[in-house]
Amino acid sequence: MNVTINDSCIGCGACESICDAVFAVDGTAAVKEAGISGNEDNVKEAAEACPVGAIEVA
Q1: Residue 6: φ, ψ to 5°
Q2: What confidence score (pLDDT) does residue 46 get?
Q3: 23 contacts 54 by C-beta, under 8 angstroms
Q4: Residue 15's pLDDT is what?
Q5: Which helix (H) or strand (E) element contains residue 57?
Q6: Where are the domains of the chain?
Q7: Residue 52 has what DSSP assignment?
Q8: Cα angle value 27/54/42 (rounded, 5°)
Q9: SS3 readout for 5-49
């Protein structure tokens, strides 16, 4: 799974609150690649919850 954050991120923290193993917000969100394995369902949930659609999952 490839997870990226696009430039529309507003740093709201929704992704981090859903899956802090993968997302960290400090101004804008960042992806912690090492945390993706085993958290795929939470990553998808965070992507769907993002208010600006900044999380791209492939």
Answers
A1: -90, 175
A2: 98
A3: no
A4: 98
A5: strand 55-57
A6: 3-57
A7: T
A8: 95
A9: ECCCCCCCCHHHHHCCCCEEEECEEEECHHHCCCCHHHHHHHHHH
CATH number of 3-57: 3.30.70.20
Q: What is the per-residue pLDDT across 8-57, written as a single tens digit (0 to 9) for each?
A: 999 999 999 999 999 999 999 999 999 999 999 999 999 999 999 999 99
Q: What is the distance, to the nearest Å, from the Cα of residue 38 to the centroid of all Cα atoms in its chain?
A: 14
The per-residue pLDDT for 6 is 98
CB 3 within 8 A of CB 31: yes
Cα separation, 13 vs 57, whole angstroms: 17
User: In the prediction, which pLDDT does 55 show?
Assistant: 98
The model's pTM is 0.95
